[in-house]
Structures are given as C-alpha cells and as structure tokens.
Design a protein that fits this description.
Strand order of the largest sheet: 2-5-8-1-9
Largest sheet: 5 strands, parallel
Number of helices: 14
Order of helices and strands: HHEHEHEEEHHEEEHEHHHEHHEHH
Shape: globular
Structural class: alpha/beta
Distance between the termini: 28 Å
Number of strands: 11
Radius of gyration: 20 Å
Helix content: 40-55%
Strand content: 15-25%
Length: about 300
C-alpha cells in the first residue's frame, strides 16, 4: 500500500518547487474541498493540476471554460433518443473524481453557477433528477489575474466561498527555474507522475484525517481569528461559518499529513492564509491603504495562540 510520504515524494520529484502547493492540494482532496489556482500565464497551473490528478487512479476530466460553454456542457443533459423513443441521460464531465476547470473565469456567471451545487453538495440536478457524484470529488480551477475585463467574468463571493483554498502561484526561484529548464527543456509540458492511489485509499486517508484530535483551545483560536476578521474596521466582508469549518477541517488534514494525531496552532497558521484570503473583502477605506494579506497577518499576529496543543 502506498504511504502518504511516497505519494508526496512522487509529486515533488515530478514537479519542481511546488511542495507547499501539493500539500494544500492533498489537504483539499482528503477533506472533499476544492482549490482555485491563480497565476500569470505560463506558470504551470494546468500542468501542476494534471500532475496531481495523474497520481490518482480515479476519473479525471478537464473542461476548458470559454464564454460559449453552457451549464449542460458541465453537468450533463437529458436528450430524446428517436431510436428508442426514450429520454437518455448523458453525464457531463462533472461526473469525475477530479475535475479541472481551466480558466474558469472565462465562463459566464450562468455556467460558473452550474458548479455551485456540485462543489457544495457533491451532486447535480438534471431536469429535476438529482445525481450523486463520485467520492472523492474535487474541483481544481485555474484563472489568470491579469486578463482584461473583455471575455472574463470574475467569480462572485458566493462562488469563491466554495473553494477551500485559493493558491497564488509565484514565480520559481532562479535555481528552481534552472531545474525546470534542465528537466523539461526537450519535452515541455510532459506529465511525469504515476497513478499510485485509488478512491478506496483516499477515503481511508480521509477517515483517518477526520479522527485527528483538535483541542477546544485550538477551536477557540480558529474562532477568534474568524470573528476578528468580521470586527476589523478595514474589513467589509469577514469570514463566514463555512470558512471557520474549512479552517478546522484543513487543520486536521495538515496535522495528519505531518504524521500527527493532534493539531497545533502552527497547523492553523499554515493554512489560514490560503483558506481565508479569497473570502475576505476590504472596505473602501481599507483598499486605499492596505492589502488583504496585510490585514489578515495583522489579525493572526494579534490573536493570542494557545501556548501548547493538548492531545
């Protein structure tokens, strides 16, 4: 049986300099969460998502979002078959374990909203019939932050709140980029990961991650951070209860991946930024003087963490 460490090593050997991002993707997979990847074109978002999905033996589907993609192109459609004189259900690409929604902000709001039910309730409704999605189910979406407003539709707050993490992919370091040139100079875009884990093993990992102990002091620490975002004078929109649950779940999975059966304040600090930044909105005054990152760091530094985590 493949171990978590072997799974991580496979990913880190195949893709240079993305160890932190792969840990967060793995957390999302274990907790049934979804991830939004944002970076400039050519930074390897799609390759990273495909490399991660390729380590999984389940069903992987990709949708290239454009303004003319319809909701039924994502969820599926029921059509009339003249040969059998019956209506037939044709499942959409959302019927997968991992769905790559490439350039999701190019789709219209109507098409974007077709993912809401799937991401929140792990099901889709087609012509009044509710269809369960496979387990595990995970959406990895990508978007470019520098696109012009023509042909793009920014994700609304309700959609962003469905993502467990938003990861901003930075440029690699000089040494990392040199290694990228060395490894992929002759075969750019090659996917080098191997299929290692199946759905049953992922479900087992998820079950074990759910058994990680989170002391009441850690829960209170999470809630203090969440409530501080709502009360900060620079914030227009603070963190929701869904965000608090997301941070709690991600904290459990982070501890599990690190090989512990209990969570610590450092686990919370490691995941609070990617779990929170996309859910926060500054007030008009705040946007003139501060960034969301600066305000969140101020809040986290101000909230007193438990001295030690009790198992």
């Amino acid at each position: 049986m493949v171990t978590l460490q072997e799974f991580r090593e496979e990913l880190n050997e195949a893709v240079v300099g993305r160890e932190k991002e792969f840990v967060l993707l793995l957390i999302a997979l274990l907790q049934g969460g979804h991830v939004l990847l944002e970076s400039v074109p050519g930074s390897g978002k799609t390759m990273m998502a495909k490399s991660f999905a390729n380590t999984f033996k389940g069903i992987f589907k990709r949708v290239q979002f454009t303004p003319d993609v319809l909701p039924s192109d994502v969820t599926g459609i029921r059509f009339f078959n003249p040969q059998t004189q019956e209506f037939v259900l044709k499942a959409g690409p959302v019927q997968a374990n991992i769905l790559l929604a490439d350039e999701v902000n190019r789709a219209t709001p109507r098409t974007q909203s077709s993912l809401l039910e799937a991401m929140e309730e792990k099901q889709v409704t087609i012509d009044g019939e509710t269809i369960e999605l496979p387990t595990p189910f995970m959406v990895i979406a990508t978007q470019n932050p520098i696109e012009s407003q023509q042909g793009t539709f920014p994700l609304p707050a309700a959609q962003l709140d469905r993502f467990l993490f938003k990861l901003t992919i930075d440029y690699p370091s000089f040494d990392e980029e040199h290694e990228i040139l060395r490894q992929y100079g002759s075969k750019p875009g090659e996917i080098r990961t191997k299929a290692l884990v199946d759905a049953q093993l992922v479900r087992q990992w998820a079950k074990e991650a759910g058994e990680v102990t989170v002391h009441e002091d850690i829960e209170r620490y999470i809630l203090k951070i969440v409530r501080a975002t709502r009360e900060h004078p620079m914030m227009e929109l603070g963190l929701s209860s869904r965000a608090a649950l997301a941070i709690l779940q991600a904290t459990r999975a982070k501890a599990y991946i690190e090989g512990r059966k209990y969570a610590t304040p450092d686990d919370v600090k490691a995941i609070v930024a990617p779990a929170a930044l996309h859910r926060l909105e500054l007030s008009t005054e705040g946007m003139l003087t501060r960034s969301v990152e600066e305000v969140l760091n101020e809040i986290v530094n101000h909230v007193t963490a438990p001295i030690e985590a009790t198992v």
